[in-house]
């Protein structure tokens, strides 16, 4: 029930009724395994054309982790690691225990919509001798003038995104995958995020971010005819055959964006709404209607100015203002206590998905970087770009078409 209106896909077709609740201990507080709540019982498929965690509805808890291969680890070790990771992810997403030495953290719980998503960073390809098969779409993102990036918390050889509707289930997966890394890879950085829990609102609705805005309205919808083309690499190319392993994959841009919440909270409601160009209460455009009404970008107010200001975030980022550039935004909020500046270290783990970053994130961020109205209240603190291979077929591990 949670998540952006445009992200209802996993709930409908990606989520399976959870029937075999094997190996996760006995007797939950509610009695037999069959009486798990629908939240705990919901299972997302591990196999498929695309990896889970892209069109899956937003989950309440998330961890994103980057790993670097250990010195001396190359293609063989990387392939073995992806095989171990895939086995663990498949089992945990089915509500089973980890293949080795399960920590017990998720005993009693169902899969709770757990998803695990794996990606490869630019540096992975040199480390594994696979430079010739690195897609150009993975070329480093350009520098943006407002970037305040921490290199230690950016990039990385491998990227893992974990999401679940239960905090213990998510942490359980994180620990299992970290242990699987063994001597082959070490954690480069890790971030923790959250969204609203399913069932917290009276009716399912688009999520809010920590500025209080309805966030996700303009996302491409899986029901739209060009959705797959915008979000996923075509199954049969395009491009050189050595990049065919990415067919059905997607590119994830990950940015830790700090929100300057103390400054934000000093703005009046009217000022806050001008920053985005939409109302805070419902997310409707300032030009009227409801959340899903199209923005009337040409509408001029009594003062002779556009009703949706010329620097409003939703105007500047809209696909029709960017030659059709579109992306699927699927973020987590984060809160890491109080920063050294005495202000909340909180914001958005911005994660967006697209078939090609040069037709998604890059042109839009170039325009926002020139100073949209939101820029004064946010700071991009870390950045990553990852090639996320297609979903595994039955018996395959994630990334096998690259690594075998
Ligand atoms: C729209 C918030 C960063 C791209 C929006 C909306 C809000 C919002 C409230 C309007 C509702 C919606 O359509 O979702 C934020 C916040 C950010 C942030 C709080 C940072 C903390 C970014 C970044 C990008 C981006 C970095 C991409 C480079 C978009 C796009 C839309 C949008 C494409 C939809 C425009 C449309 O289709 O009408 N954002 N945003 N946003 N944002 Fe952001």
Automatic annotation (TrEMBL):
Pfam families in alphabetical order: Dyp_perox_C (PF20628), Dyp_perox_N (PF04261)
Keywords: Heme, Iron, Lyase, Metal-binding, Oxidoreductase, Peroxidase, Signal
Residue ranges of every copy of the Dyp-type peroxidase C-terminal domain listed in the record: 206-391
Predominant localisation class: other
Root EC class: oxidoreductase
Keyword Amino-acid biosynthesis listed: no
Cofactor descriptive note: Binds 1 heme b (iron(II)-protoporphyrin IX) group non-covalently per subunit.
EC number: 1.11.1.-
Location in the cell: Cell envelope
Catalytic activity field: heme b + 2 H(+) = protoporphyrin IX + Fe(2+)
Cofactor(s) this protein requires: heme b
Top-level taxonomic group: Bacteria
Domain Dyp-type peroxidase N-terminal: 51-195
Role noted for this protein: Involved in the recovery of exogenous heme iron. Extracts iron from heme while preserving the protoporphyrin ring intact.
PANTHER family: DEFERROCHELATASE, DEFERROCHELATASE/PEROXIDASE
Family the entry assigns: Belongs to the DyP-type peroxidase family.
Identification of the protein by name: Deferrochelatase
Organism for this UniProt entry: Streptomyces virginiae
